[in-house]
Design a protein that fits this description.
The chain has 126 residues and is mainly α. The chain has one domain. The chain has helices at 5-21, 28-31, 37-59, 67-73, 84-98, 106-125. Helix 1 (5-21) packs antiparallel against helix 6 (106-125), helix 3 runs antiparallel to helix 5 and helix 5 (84-98) runs antiparallel to helix 6. It is globular, with a radius of gyration of 16 Å. The relative contact order is 0.16. The chain crosses the membrane at residues 34-57. This is Dolichol kinase. One of its GO terms (molecular function) is kinase activity. Keywords: Kinase, Membrane, Transferase, Transmembrane, Transmembrane helix.
């Protein structure tokens, strides 16, 4: 059964917000004492590398089995350029990386990351 355009768009926007809010989990292993902040930053930087590869595949038309996912979640204006999720991943890694310098600490970085992960999709829904 095909959804009407408005219902389809609403469902996709909800799914996009869920993906976005999933980023709130990045600092949790650090908060639980499972990873150091340096290791958390490493995970995020590895994520940037993975996202870079995925974007390269998507933009070259070689996304393979991920094509339906990209078709559903990537907005029309992102189709020919870097998608928002890639910029989001870079932003999260940038915040984590800043907290490894004298600019900030993990105490400041965690709320900033949660704002990126939760605040943006919530404000978009309002």
């Amino acid at each position: 059964m095909t959804l009407p355009a408005a219902a389809w768009r609403e469902r996709v926007e909800f799914e996009r917000r869920l993906v976005h809010m999933g980023g709130a989990l990045y600092p949790v292993p650090h908060l639980l004492g499972w990873l150091s902040w340096g290791e958390t930053t490493g995970v995020l930087l590895a994520g940037v590398a993975v996202v870079g590869l995925l974007e390269l595949l998507r933009l070259s038309g070689n996304a393979g089995p991920l094509s339906p996912l990209y078709t559903a979640l990537v907005r029309e204006y992102e189709a020919d350029g870097v998608a928002g999720y890639a910029l989001y991943q870079v932003s999260m890694a940038g915040v984590a990386l800043a907290a490894t310098t004298s600019l900030a600490t993990p105490t400041l970085a965690v709320p900033a990351m949660w704002m990126l992960a939760i605040g943006d999709p919530v404000s978009g829904a309002l």
